[in-house]
Amino acid sequence: MRIGGGYGGGVPETRDSGALRRRLDPAVAAVRSAVRAALAPLRLTGGDPAPDDSPPRVLVALSGGADSLALAAAVAFESRRLGIAASAVVIDHGLQDQSVAQTANAADTARAMGLAATVIAVQVAADGGPEAAARDARYEALRAEAERTGAVAVLLGHTLDDQAETVLLGLARGSGGSSLMGMAPVREDEASGVLWMRPLLAVRRDMTRAACLAEGLGAWEDPHNADPQFARVRVRTRLLPVLEEELGPGVAEALARTAEQLREDAEAFREMIDETIEDIVEHAEAGISVSVPALAANPAALRNRVIRHVVQSEFGVSLTRTQTLEVARLVTDWRGQAPIDLPGCAAERRGLRVVFTARP
């Protein structure tokens, strides 16, 4: 179900920009500055011009909450200045009694800002956790809408606080550096080429609330955001406040910095893997093989990443830390071990190669 019309347009500015700057609320200025920095490169790298020389197009994922509402308001303002076509997409998950009215209200608010808005109803899968299922349905709908409209990017309203919560959850699960990296400011969707962008990852949640208040925007409070059955809510309402109280202010910022530093490290490792892997990997019957001497010559951090990368690329599965170390022992501690059963494949030592083969 879609509600809404075309895209682009907006209300032209009529007030003196100097007067606007003098009266601009600091929170509004902070959000607009973050959005401007994110959108500006799109004007230069938005792909080849269309036949009608149309501007690059972006979508704002709008829930009606303070974060996405502040984001939408900033995009409405900055996109006109940058010559970027922008519109809002509101996803109705159908999980609450008032979802139809709430999503319609969010769309109306976007239109009042000068953004065209579309409401899309999705079906959330019954199996698995409700939070993950709703996220999957939402992202699939946003991806499809971006492809339908020719948008180059979808903008998401995650803040620095969301990043800190993500890092803590990854730390608690012990899922390694990939989880501790948190959310990337920009990530290209492999299937569609659309960019997922998070302009507000350096902005605190209280700043987006203050921006909404300053602009007279009534933000919706999602009841799920206060439900302690969700681990993220417990981190937000219980764990982070305790850490701030016991360790002092700045914990959230420190966690976000950690995520940024780990992403930088991961990018460096990724480049090293890309340079190395072509020389040490060969296709094998029903699978792929990796050179034992080449793996042994590399430090453990790079060796383990190569192993995980090979299995992920060839078989589409992610290895745990324990599974990765067992495969690495075929290189560093070879004692005639039997083949190792892994998700979707098996690994075994054959001479000077570790061979991964698909399992039925």
Q: Biggest sheet: strands, sense, closure?
A: 7 strands, mixed
Q: Specify Rg, calculated over alpha carbons.
A: 24 Å
Number of domains: 2
Number of helices: 13
- What spatial order of strands do you see in the largest sheet? 1-4-3-2-5-7-6
The total beta strand count reads 12
Query: What fraction, in percent, of the residue positions are helical?
Result: 40-55%
Describe the model.
- This protein has 360 residues and is of the alpha/beta class.
- It folds into two domains: 2-259, Rossmann fold, CATH 3.40.50; 285-358, Uridine Diphospho-n-acetylenolpyruvylglucosamine Reductase, domain 3, CATH 3.30.465.
- It has 13 helices and twelve strands.
- Helix 3 (66-82) crosses helix 8 (205-214), helix 6 (160-173) packs across helix 10 (251-280) and helix 12 (300-315) packs across helix 13.
- The longest helix is centred in the last third of the chain and has 30 residues, at 251-280.
- The two termini are 40 Å apart.
SSE layout and pairings?
Elements: E1 2-3, H1 17-23, H2 26-45, E2 57-61, H3 66-82, E3 85-92, H4 99-113, E4 116-121, H5 130-149, E5 153-155, H6 160-173, H7 177-180, E6 186-188, E7 195-197, H8 205-214, H9 231-247, H10 251-280, E8 281-284, E9 287-291, H11 292-297, H12 300-315, H13 321-332, E10 340-342, E11 345-350, E12 353-358
